[in-house]
Amino acid sequence: MPSPLRRLHARAEVPPTLHDTQVSVRSVALTILAFAATMYLLHWAQEAFIPIVLSILISFALEPLVVMLTRIRLPRMVAAGLVVTMSGGALVYGMYSLSDDVAAMVAQLPDAAQRRPVRSRKCSRQRRNCRRPPTRPHRRTPRRGT
């Protein structure tokens, strides 16, 4: 008489492997349509999604600083306000300290634009082979009849 454990093991369903599954054309087509619709939605609403995603990323980046300030017994709202204020201040200070360098670079732009050689439209479209190939001496063939 077989043991009860063997009977349970024999009745247990074996999970399907990659070779056992069948992919229908309908499921592939629906997956492609869903992906295309999602991409269209993201492109259509990019003005709303980009700020939302950026704000989530910034909140993840600033979270450790807020947690550190809450460990020293500051309320979470005060800690978050302090971190945002300090981040904004650091950004403004960085922009102010770089303003002289940026102004000097902008002042040099007209001179740099005049020194840059102008390429033809054909070269700018192709983006390759903009230099002329070296010329080979042309071999003259003798004319017949002279």
Description:
- This protein has 146 residues and is an all-alpha fold.
- The chain has a domain at 26-112.
- The chain is built from five helices and no strands.
- The chain has helices spanning 4-11, 25-44, 46-71, 76-115, 121-126.
- Helix 3 (46-71) packs across helix 4.
- The protein is flat and about 105 Å long.
How are the elements arranged and paired?
Elements: H1 4-11, H2 25-44, H3 46-71, H4 76-115, H5 121-126
Summary of the model, kept short:
The protein is an all-alpha fold. The protein has helices spanning about 5-10, 25-45, 45-70, 75-115, 120-125.
Q: Classify the beta-strand content into a percent band.
A: under 5%
> Which whole number gives the mean pLDDT?
80
How many individual helices?
5
| Main β sheet profile | none
How does the helix and strand content classify structurally? mainly alpha
Q: Residue ranges: pLDDT <50 for 5 or more in a row? A: none
Q: In which range does the helix fraction lie?
A: 55-70%
Indicate the radius of gyration in whole angstroms: 34 Å
Order of helices and strands: HHHHH
Which outline best applies?
A: flat
Question: What brief labels describe this structure?
Answer:
146 residues; mainly alpha
